[in-house]
Design a protein that fits this description.
- Helix content is about 45%, strand content about 15%.
- The chain folds into two domains: about 140 residues, Response regulator (Rossmann fold); about 130 residues, Response regulator (Rossmann fold, 3-Layer(aba) Sandwich), CATH 3.40.50.2300.
- About 40% of the residues are buried.
- The chain has about 350 residues and is α/β, with parallel strands linked by helices.
- It has a six-stranded parallel sheet, sandwiched between helices.
Length: about 350
């Protein structure tokens, strides 16, 4: 049985109202006009003659980034890191590295006597094309030829701590370089004067030297000799080198005192040697020997406090390292730097600091 409904198949057709037909004709005209406008707009080029497209404008807005400049590479070449003096020098150089935004490369030889190794280090730095070298040379002459080659390769060179031999440098045609250090002769003189004070009876003195081809070692020996010579009661009876080393100084002191047991004043050209000599003196049970060192290492300062040493000289190793890197960076910027800078020395004794 079917159900009556209103589907299209069964709905009878009815003629549209005349009013509706008129409205449809009017709407059709409007739609034609709209479609024509859209078509013309699509066919027309919307890009003005003097402006780029959206894509063009985006490309021009995003400019290539400027290349990030490479940090300057400055090498600090020292004699060794077995001596705390050079550890302090590196600390000062690291402060300059942080302040200046450069890259610091620290290179050292195995020992203070490893001169050929220092030469090889400089040669390698030339091959690596670093920008500058700050060097505390182990020898005042033997490093000059390779440093001349560094200059020829365009590297800035700064000399710290131990002075390069100016006469030999001029002879081989090396350009002058800035030098940063202390007045080693005066520093040793001040230490020697501490040893010599209040000496009024005939007294024997001795000196343990550094590397004899190093200008700073010779200057310190000269300063100690000048201080001893200022007191007519003092006679220098022995001078030997221990090459800056603590163990060698122990052996040198032992042989000295076996030959000259009457020695009671001993100047050592650095603290490492002073500590080695002091160890022998203590083991020998000698309480009548006054020893002075040079460098103000922490162990030496403690030895001054305990009475094992009577004095040491602070030559501000950190300051030398800091200035060396700073000068090198200024040279790379074509700035003028002093050819010679003397850092102040300070006498360290168990008494308040001497002026």
């Amino acid at each position: 049985m079917g159900i009556a409904g209103t589907s299209a198949a069964t709905t009878p057709y009815r003629e549209p109202c005349p009013l509706l037909r008129a409205a449809a004709r009017a709407m059709g005209g409007i739609l034609v006009a709209v479609f024509a406008t859209v078509w013309l707009a699509a066919c027309d080029d919307p890009k003005p003659a003097d402006k780029g497209s959206i894509a063009d404008r985006k490309e021009s807005a995003v400019k290539p980034a400027d290349p990030v400049p490479e940090r300057r590479r400055i090498a600090l070449v020292m004699k060794t890191l077995t001596n705390p003096f050079f550890i302090e020098m590196e600390r000062g150089a690291r402060v300059a590295e942080a302040e200046l935004g450069i890259e610091l490369l620290v290179k050292t030889a195995a020992q203070e006597t490893s001169i050929e190794q220092q030469v090889a280090i400089v040669e390698e730095l030339i091959r690596q094309q670093v920008d500058a070298i700050v060097i505390a040379p182990g020898d005042s002459v033997k490093l000059i030829p390779v440093l001349k080659r560094a200059q020829a390769a365009g590297l800035a060179v700064v000399n710290i701590d131990n002075r390069l031999d100016a006469e030999f440098a001029q002879k081989v045609g090396m350009a002058r370089v800035p030098f940063i250090s202390v007045d080693n002769e005066n520093g040793a003189y001040l230490a020697g004067m501490v040893l010599a004070e209040n000496v009024s009876v005939p007294t024997k003195a001795a000196i343990i030297e550094g590397i004899r081809s190093a200008a700073n070692a010779e200057a310190r020996k000269a300063g100690a000799l000048r201080a001893f010579a200022a007191n007519p009661a003092i006679t220098v009876v022995a001078q030997e080198s221990a090459d800056w080393k603590i163990d060698e100084a122990y052996d040198v002191a032992k042989s000295m005192f076996e030959r000259e047991p009457g020695i009671s004043l001993l100047f050592c050209a650095n603290d490492m040697m002073a500590l080695g000599a002091a160890r022998y003196i203590q083991e020998a049970g000698r309480r009548d020997v006054r020893i002075a060192g040079y460098d103000a290492l922490n162990d030496a300062v403690e030895a001054v406090k305990s009475g094992a040493l009577v004095a040491t000289i602070d030559q501000q190793a950190g300051r030398q390292g800091y200035l060396g890197v700073t000068y090198a960076n200024r040279m790379l910027s074509r700035e003028q730097v002093p050819l010679e800078t003397m850092v102040e020395v300070r006498v360290i004794t168990a008494r308040p600091e001497r002026p």
